[in-house]
Amino acid sequence: MIKVVSIDRNGRVFIPASIRKDMELQSGGRALVEYSHGELKIKRPTVDIDKVHAIFTKRKKRKNVVSDLLEQRRREVEQEERECLRK
């Protein structure tokens, strides 16, 4: 699918609502951006950290497991972001 989008003077790209909905991107959320050979790709992280956090924080008995899982996933997302920047 190809869409023409607007870019404001601050460099923000406006993603059409239909694409945001399809990609499950929400205001204030995070996305991965990859630039290579004149092409810009926007990707949704494979796991939504906020959703995982919401599920596991309901289980207060396992709080340490939740913290460990969230920290591990944050490191993975940061690594994915670094890899996208290197390409």
From TrEMBL:
The keyword DNA-binding applies. It comes from the Bacteria. Residues 2-47 form the SpoVT-AbrB domain. GO terms for molecular function: DNA binding. InterPro entries: SpoVT-AbrB_dom (IPR007159), SpoVT-AbrB_sf (IPR037914). Keywords: DNA-binding. This is SpoVT-AbrB domain-containing protein.
